[in-house]
Amino acid sequence: MTKHKTFETPHGTSIAYHYHTGRQPTVVFFGGLMSDMEGTKATALEKHCLAKGYGFLRFDYSGHGSSSGKFIEGTIGLWAKDAVALIEAVIEGDIIIIGSSMGGWTGLLAGLKFKDRLKAFIGIAAAPDFTERLMWQDFSDEQRQEIKANGEIELPSDYSDEPYIVSYGLIKDGRDHLLLDAPINLDVPIRLVHGLRDDDVPAQTAHAISSALTSEDVEVTLVKAGGHSLSEPKDLKRLMNVLDQLMADFI
């Protein structure tokens, strides 16, 4: 496995990443909450992009994987800022963003920063506004009191024996970056793929994103047997096909 590179951001984060030059737009993968750039989708995309000659970037947010920082100190705003700084530093030219789960939120935020360079966006179980819609609104009164009093709360994880530790800072910062209650001003091709058996992010989220986007070129694909991760071989094949169809317009 090739050793990652490290980028020191102007805001003090040390970001681990892998970057390959190639045909543009460069594909940038935004991972999900508590995932890292060694995950199935990130590495499969890298392999595919290298085979096709596409430029490709994968990275770890602060507090994730090989990057610096503590997870509990991370926020949506910081993680999006990490990504924007890295893209500005290492990529010249146009980009296509692929965002998985939370990466659908940070990826949309980054896309809004790069309107002049963003050529398309793919969301995989994209989860904008999840801190408010899927966490805070579902918390009991007791949980809300606990997170306010202690600054954090433990939530069970379906993907690890270790619980998610959610900070009150994550919740509060999320409110400064909500997207679904106003127009999302992106006018590029958008492809949203969501599993109907997603127990973490309801499939209705894809329709909420579609409704908020100003783009007229939005397609939502619902996968009847698909869960949240959409990392099975058939899911990866679908993802690569969607990417290749978008890239065909530019190469």
Structure at a glance:
The chain is an alpha/beta fold and 251 residues long. It contains 8 helices and 10 strands.
Poorly predicted runs = none
Which CATH C-level class is it? Answer: Alpha Beta
Number of domains: 1
Name the beta content range.
Answer: 15-25%
Classify the fold: give the CATH topology: Rossmann fold
Q: How much helix is in the residues?
A: 25-40%
CATH-derived architecture: 3-Layer(aba) Sandwich
Count the helices. How many? 8
Biggest β-sheet strands, sense, barrel: 8 strands, mixed
What value does the average pLDDT take? Answer: 95
Protein described:
The structure is a single chain. With 251 residues, the chain is of the alpha/beta class. It has a single domain, classed as Rossmann fold (3-Layer(aba) Sandwich). Helices cover 35% and strands 23% of the residues. It has an eight-stranded mixed sheet, with helices on both faces.
Keywords, please?
251 residues; Rossmann fold; 8 helices; 10 strands; 35% helix; 23% strand; globular
Q: Helices, strands, pairings?
A:
Blueprint: E1 5-8, E2 14-20, E3 23-30, H1 40-52, E4 54-59, H2 76-90, E5 95-100, H3 102-113, E6 118-124, H4 130-135, H5 141-150, E7 152-155, E8 164-167, H6 168-174, E9 190-195, H7 204-212, E10 218-223, H8 233-247
Parallel strand pairs: 3-4, 3-5, 5-6, 6-9, 9-10
Antiparallel strand pairs: 1-2, 2-4, 7-8
